[in-house]
Amino acid sequence: MGDEQRRVPHRYRERLGGDTLQARMQSATGPYDRPFHKNPSHDTSETGFQTMKIFISYASQDRAQVEPIRYALEEQGHEVFFDRDDLPVGESFTTRIRSAIERCDLFVCCITPDTVDAGSYTLNELDIARRVFPRPSGRVLPVVLRKVPFDQIPAWLKSVTLLETPGNVTAAVADAVHQIARKRKLQRMKRIGIGSAVVLIAAVALYNVAPPTTDDATADTGNAQPENTLNLGPQIPIEAGQFIFGDDVNTPRRNLYVSPFLIDQHEVTTSLYAAFMEATGSDPAPDEWEQFDPASHGELPVIGVSWNEANAFCKWAGKRLPTEAEWEKAARGSDQRLYPWGDDEPTPEHATFERTADYAYEGGVTAVGSHPMGQTPEGVQDLAGNVSEWVSDWYSDSFDRDDTRNPQGPAEGSGKVIRGSGWQDPAEELLAVKRYHANQSTRQTDLGFRCAMDQPQ
């Protein structure tokens, strides 16, 4: 269908098109489906910086000039993606390039006239990186190897300081990367300290939150409120029944049946996720955790967690991620409404959207449950805006015609489905039928999750 990757601000799509370069990779092994080379003899356990996975983007014409940079970074102990000689051109090439960029810690872009040439595959790599790192500071290092007119350099790269030196460029890059790695280690140490404080607050919250009474639960929704699993927040019952999934524009229209289930009223918060981290030893911390203030951010939805991490949390809580069909049933109901609250156009009273901020926790996301006008008739909140949400299904743009009763999605795929919209998205992205997908290891600053579970009989 094509529309599933038309994500406006930054994220999951990649630009497709012809490749005028020969594929440039040695093999496709390891967790990234392509090699990040590392000097195995280099021990960094006693150094003052954190080793990283580094993706070097360069035009094939510049290989000889870039290769010393690769060796210098490997000598520091970093895992470097560089070679592509044996990777076949085509879908697998593009998919593995995207996967490696999504999973790297630092994207190094070597800028020359060949890099910005209209036919260069490096422009595709830049396009992917721009969506993976919408705020490139600390995650992207542009290195000028040969002079390029400033107006020809992509604006996204110009938003961070370009590294340009008349001297030894290899030494300059190695020093810049060392400083970035050292800063990341300091931030990680700070996150550990913050995480300990958050856990104390979360522990108090978990011991003091009691399941709501029936009167409390039915005050606004008219539905009996079931007891929560581990007191991790209220859940809303969704009745069994048929509903129309899709609209033949964003996804094929189908008549589906879903059994009764429970879905979290709110997205998982930072304080609850901190309790999970403490209980399980989950590491690393979510993205932007260093910006998190436990005193004022505990009711914000957690962001920057992968599908794997979201799935692990739900299992720890005795729940699961909702299926895509369940999510859309909760958001659209049986009346095919345009938005979770109905057909009225979105306003700031309905949802958090079209916001601009440097960090999600500082002017981006808002506390869960802040928009009662945007809740569904049953009482589920924040299904549009604030953060988009992982669901359990593998992504597919086609469906089994006979799979209409509690569909679970395909058995495998190239990415996991994402539903809902985030704090940066425009109003038109808040439609309840919108769906996207991303690699299950993807982390983004407007991507979170909520849990669901089968309704007890």
Number of strands: 13
Which of globular, elongated, flat, extended, rod-shaped describes the shape?
A: elongated
Weakly predicted, low-confidence segments? 1-35, 40-47, 198-229
Order of helices and strands: EHEHEHEHHHEEEEHHHEEEEE
What's the topology here?
Blueprint: E1 53-57, H1 63-75, E2 79-81, H2 91-103, E3 106-111, H3 122-132, E4 140-144, H4 155-158, H5 169-208, H6 214-221, E5 235-238, E6 241-245, E7 254-258, E8 261-264, H7 270-280, H8 307-316, H9 324-332, E9 388-394, E10 416-419, E11 435-438, E12 447-448, E13 452-454
Parallel strand pairs: 1-2, 1-3, 3-4, 9-12
Antiparallel strand pairs: 5-8, 6-7, 8-13, 9-10, 10-11
Task: Give a description of the structure.
- Helix 3 links the parallel strand 3 and strand 4.
- The protein has nine helices and 13 strands.
- The two termini are 39 Å apart.
- 26% of the residues lie in helices and 12% in strands.
- The protein is an alpha/beta fold.
- The longest helix has 40 residues.
- The N terminus is likely disordered.
- Helix 2 packs across helix 3.
- A four-stranded parallel β-sheet has the order 2-1-3-4, with helices on both faces. Strands 11-10-9-12 form a four-stranded mixed β-sheet. It has a three-stranded antiparallel β-sheet with strand order 5-8-13, with helices on one face.
